[in-house]
Specification:
This protein is of the alpha/beta class. It has 15 helices and twelve strands. It is globular. The structure holds alpha-D-psicofuranose and manganese (II) ion.
Length: 431
């Protein structure tokens, strides 16, 4: 039984205040769906079964290279991060797992950490290795790369850091490692493209060889940043070629912010599904670049179209299809816990809406080349407001009908500010 961080009575009281309006809205949605041949009960159960993991680095206030504006009551170590994640899960009820970033979250005692998470009803998602910063005085610098550095000793150090992530992951019950590197060049000529990719393969091969049975390794590509001229793993095609080369344990991870503007991400997703190499997602939203904004805040239709591909693969039982879902956002101006709760809800919303698509009608439209009706078929699903259904999924699991309002009513942040005095910030986030 998970130890609740917030008083369950408060959640029950807040839900009771909304019960009458909510019951009416849920009933009306059920009737509307029924007229379209859809069962609200089955869809609510689908929503309940959906989960997206929380990044440990998402519970602290993020920032940009121009600064960071921390708020009071921020978590100071990995245990307080877990406590915050448990609040998100208690209210949103679709975020039971946490993804750690090492060394930001390097635990002193992994078994104790696992126990602390279990006490809060949480488990651990993929491990993330950070070889894009220098952490330890005296270590070899990653200024000019890590897994692809020209100096073998730096590459070996970066490989060893990934192996440490695997060891920690084994101790806390994780079964995946996500590898994102900041390696690349800021100037034309700085990097020998082919040699750098060869070195990437050599290093990732060594990491892959250390993966225990049942583990996966996710390769995360990114167009640019912090290298602003070229990156070594720049796009999904390169990622696919590497994942294929490295073997069945190795898959591609799609971070929605890691592509050129206007790239059709849903078609990339469909390609990776078809090629059997879609490993998972880092969800966030963006207007211009890797903005790391809240999921669904800028391009909710794109998120829906991505889930249309995912739900289609699920429906068609594509072999080996089991993508991992994680939020990866930087909360610079909002309370991170509010952003995480609402973002998880937006991802879940896209999943449920994609489940409403009349797949048979869409297939017919495609066969007849009826472009207009095909779009309308998607829009019928996209424009259905499933909010009451999502709220019901949360309520049934003991969560909040309105997570953000309930969070505010709990005064959790103010109470954290009292017992977590601002001091030295112990571990990083996206800054
Ligand atoms: C890089 O932009 C990234 O998306 C990677 O997933 C990192 O692990 C994460 O953000 C945090 O910096
Ligand atoms: Mn990411």
């Amino acid at each position: 039984m998970a130890r609740p961080v917030l008083d369950p009575q408060l959640v029950a009281d807040e839900n009771a205040r909304r019960a009458a309006d909510f019951a009416r809205d849920f009933g009306e949605l059920g009737a509307r769906l029924k007229r379209r041949g859809l069962e609200v009960e089955a869809l609510t159960q689908r929503a309940q079964a959906f989960t997206v993991a929380i990044p440990s680095w998402g519970v602290g206030t993020g920032g940009t290279r121009f600064g960071r504006f921390p708020q009071s009551g921020e978590p100071r170590d990995v245990y307080e991060k877990l406590e915050d994640c448990a609040v998100v899960q208690q209210l949103a009820r679709c975020t039971p797992a946490v993804s750690l970033h090492v060394p930001w979250d390097r635990p002193d005692d992994p078994r104790r950490l696992k126990g602390a998470a279990a006490d809060l009803g949480l488990s651990f998602d993929a491990m993330n290795s950070n070889t894009f910063e220098d952490h330890t005085p005296g270590q070899r610098s990653y200024k000019f790369g890590s897994l692809t550095h020209t100096d073998r000793a730096v590459r070996e150090q970066a490989v060893a850091q990934n192996l440490e992530c695997i060891e920690i992951g084994k101790a806390i019950g994780s079964t995946a490692l996500t590898v994102w590197i900041g390696d690349g060049g800021n100037f034309p000529g700085q990097l020998h493209f082919r040699r750098a990719l060869d070195r990437y393969l050599e290093s990732t091969r060594a990491i892959c060889a250390a993966l225990p049975d049942g583990w996966k390794m996710y390769l995360e590509h990114k167009l640019c940043e912090p290298a602003f001229y070229s990156t070594v793993l720049n796009d999904w095609g390169t990622s696919y070629v590497c994942a294929k080369e490295l073997g069945p344990k190795c898959l591609c991870l799609v971070d929605l912010g890691h592509h050129a503007p206007n790239v059709n991400i849903e078609s990339i997703v469909s390609r990776l599904i078809q090629l059997g190499k879609l490993g998972g997602f880092h969800f966030n939203d963006s207007k211009y670049s890797d903005d790391d904004l809240d999921s669904g805040s800028i391009k909710p239709f794109q998120l829906f179209l991505i889930f249309h591909e995912l739900v289609g693969a699920e429906r068609e039982k594509v072999a080996g299809f089991a993508p991992a879902y994680l939020l990866d956002q930087s909360h610079n101006v909002t309370d991170p816990l509010e952003s995480l709760m609402s973002s998880a809800g937006e991802v879940q919303r896209a999943y449920v809406k994609a489940s409403l698509v009349d797949a048979a009608r869409l297939a017919e439209c495609q066969e007849r080349n009826d472009a207009l009706l095909a779009l309308q078929t998607l829009k019928d699903a996209y424009e259905t407001d499933v909010s009451p259904l999502l709220a019901e999924a949360r309520r049934r699991a003991g969560g909040a009908i309105d997570p953000v309002a309930t969070f505010r009513a709990s005064r959790y942040r103010a109470r954290c500010a009292e017992r977590r005095p601002a001091g030295k910030r112990t571990s990083g986030g996206i800054v």
